[in-house]
């Protein structure tokens, strides 16, 4: 298996370890889950996505 070495900020590492414990996963599995896109989106990103969708719907309604 290939080996990957990462340099992480200590606080970010602690948060990652905490998330793995909260999710009942090993640190490796938590990293894989995040790499596969399983990490929750931030509230900011959710709000931005909702706003973009609303703008798109409005443009479609105006165009028809």
TrEMBL record:
This is Uncharacterized protein. The lineage of its organism: Bacteria, Pseudomonadati, Pseudomonadota, Gammaproteobacteria, Pseudomonadales. It comes from the Bacteria.
